[in-house]
Design a protein that fits this description.
The protein has 385 residues and is α+β, with helices and mostly antiparallel strands. The chain folds into 2 domains: 151 residues, no CATH class; 181 residues, no CATH class. The protein has 18 helices and 8 strands. A 4-stranded antiparallel sheet has the order 1-2-7-4, with helices on both faces. Strands 3-8 form a two-stranded parallel ribbon. The mean pLDDT is 91.
Length: 385
């Protein structure tokens, strides 16, 4: 439909009020052309060209659509950007001092946010059609939409040096979603950057994935490694992962703007008790059926059992708890190569040199997978690392 439909002068504030009534915390408006041909598009091109997206091949597809919302939907004139706070009540970093427990990113401790946010976006979109007409489409993290640049253009906040959104009111804890509309609505002012000289997020990153100019190499990011990366995790990052078993909040948690963020009040985001401070010993024994049952309705489920147990085994290797070695040894014959490989590394960290050498002598020749056999050989010193 055309973008020149008549728009009630008060529509913008009506939309804002309706969005807040539906449970959103932040609302802003940006033209669909907000960053077309700008530095954000160039940054994406460079990011892909440098392979910093790792195995996230979906980022390299449909780049024209990511760089221009009209490439995704030709009729869009205005993007309504919406934010929903998930600011935690407790210190997200306190589990880092408890290596016997697994540290799960705050956003993944409750229900899958995609379902809740999309449901509310659809309700807002239906209301908008009834109120003002036009056509609409809704998106939440599952389509080629550059959500963070759009949110910044709509005045919700700015992209911090950790590459995520930062809000004066909600700190670094905002889920984002968008309603694309064919209506022409007066845009809000873009938000300016208020990171100043702060480098706290860069300094806290365990693997050095962040650079001072606000760029990230996903291939070194713990969130990427524990969620998106499908194979064996590079040895250079395993010790730095500590007890992170799904995602990482370190760079978000230290942002000084979080001091202004009140804890969220959304029941769906309340952490499930079994995910707040889980014992590594409990998660490492999960088979596929048990994994699916435990993580039903959780974003963790999409990672799959094998990658998740791989992460848990690396955390066990970092636990300095030799009593957990038996759990790792039980998985040396697991069907999944990534699990066997991580079990080998965990045992190399928990057993004495002689104990591990005895295990290697027993198992190396029996291992048919070349990459897993290399794990035995590398950590046992049979070949150069």
């Amino acid at each position: 439909m055309s973008g020149d439909l008549p728009v009630d002068a008060d529509l913008k504030e009506k939309i804002r009020a309706q969005a807040i009534a539906l449970g959103f915390d932040a609302v802003g408006f940006a033209p669909a052309t907000a960053f077309v041909g700008g530095p954000q598009a160039d940054d994406l091109t460079a990011y892909i060209a440098d392979d910093r997206h790792g195995e996230m091949d979906w980022m390299a597809r449909n780049t024209d659509r990511r760089q221009d919302p009209n490439g995704l939907w030709a009729d869009v004139r205005t993007v309504i950007s919406l934010g929903l706070s998930y600011a935690p009540k407790d210190d997200p970093l306190h589990l880092l001092n408890h290596p016997e427990r697994g540290n799960i990113a705050i956003y993944a401790r409750g229900r899958d946010y995609h379902d809740l946010v999309k449901s509310r976006l659809k309700r807002l979109a239906r209301w908008l059609i009834e109120e003002a007409g036009g056509d609409v489409k809704v998106f939440v993290d599952t389509a080629p939409v550059m959500e963070k640049p759009l949110a910044a253009a709509a005045g919700l906040g700015w992209q911090g040096r950790h590459t995520n959104m930062v809000s004066r009111e909600f700190g670094s804890w905002l889920f984002l979603g968008e309603v694309f509309t064919s209506l022409e609505i007066e845009p809000d002012q873009p938000h300016t950057d208020h990171c100043g000289s702060c480098r706290t997020c860069i300094q806290v990153c365990p693997t050095g994935a962040l650079s001072p100019d606000g760029k990230m190499d996903a291939r070194a990011c713990i969130s990427y490694l524990t969620i998106e990366h499908k194979g064996h995790i590079d040895r250079q990052y395993r010790k730095a992962m500590g007890n992170h078993i799904y995602g990482c909040d370190d760079c978000l948690a230290v942002c000084p703007w979080n001091k202004f963020a009140d804890a969220h009040k959304e029941p769906a985001f309340l952490p499930r008790i079994e995910l707040t401070a889980p014992q590594l010993r409990d998660f490492v024994t999960l088979d596929d059926a048990a994994f699916r049952q435990v993580f039903s309705g959780s974003p963790i489920k999409r990672t799959g059992r094998d990658r998740f147990v791989r992460n848990v085994l690396i955390a066990i290797g970092n636990s300095n708890m030799p009593e957990l070695a038996t759990k790792a040894e039980d998985l040396l014959h697991d069907p999944a190569p990534v699990v066997r490989g991580a079990a080998i590394w965990a045992l190399s960290q928990l057993k004495s040199a002689q104990e591990f050498a005895d295990l290697a002598e027993k198992h190396t020749a029996q291992e048919e997978d070349a990459d897993v056999r290399a794990e035995w050989e590398n950590v046992s010193g049979l070949t150069e690392t």
